[in-house]
Amino acid sequence: MHPFLARGRLGPYFAAWLPIGALLAALVRLAGAASWLEAAVLVAPLAVVYAFICLASWYPCRSLPMTAAQLPRTVFVHAGAGVVSTLVWLFVAATWSAALEAFPAFAGLDQRFPRIAAMLAAAGLILYALAATLHCAVRAAGLAAEADARALEQMLAAREAELSALKAQVSPHFLFNALNSIAGLAASEPETVRRTTVALADFLRASLRAARCRTITLAEELALVEAYLDIEKIRFGARLTVARRVADAVLAVPVPPLILQPLVENAVVRGIAHLVEGGAVTIEAHADDAGLRVSVTNPYDPAAAGRGGEGLGMANVRARLAAAYGPAGELVAHAAGGTFRAELRLPPADLQASAP
Length: 356
What we know:
The protein has about 350 residues and is of the alpha+beta class.
């Protein structure tokens, strides 16, 4: 659709022609071709007519490519359209002038019209050129906006694909470690293996369902974490304990699904699993002015080379946070004195989204 016929632009467009019509009438009067009354009555409707005619300059602008290589062709087409538009306008002007001749106040106007026509011809070509320039500028702005919109859509699609790929890596990683737990119990505790297998199936079902969501609440994420820890407790027994200190106010905060799970898994696999006496995995969550803070703390053996630090899951979490939040989301990990702490930091906007 024509850009001036939509979006409420037609009124301002015709308003811009009011001073143009007044200027044309003044030029006709000052050239001595007509009185003020004759100039006003002759030119006023002609300005309205030409305003409509110049709207047609949009269509060549829309159909011709906006490139430097096509500039000569564009100029040629608009020059031809300008000449045709001006001739049509002059025909309307001649017809209107002849009609006014029937009134005594406009006697002799028809004989003076050739001088007026020469002035209108020059003005018509100039006004068409201005209208075509305006329409081409509107077209260029529209193309730029469309390009920006496409670039944004492509960026969002790429980010969604990246998030999906990262999220798809989570479940296989969980499954690998859970199956290791089951394999360790297969020979000595078949009943425990059965219970673990059932628990694993429930956990995987819940995690796959969560992975299809863009976000889930922190409460739902914690439920997945607890299901995973229940499986690991079957394997580690009394060696694994869990402490949870989570503020009720943050349970409804939306978080990426399976974003906390790798931190807990890292605590078990690279920390608790390598301590003879085991230890406690502590999960804490609260909100402050900087956003949501969720931390996982565990003991580890500093003497065990390559243990107690960050695994593949932690790198995955960092990549997902960067893709989802940019610099506003981060994972901070710190190891000291036999204790490893990993903290998720999510932006305040997520807290606002969870507010009732």
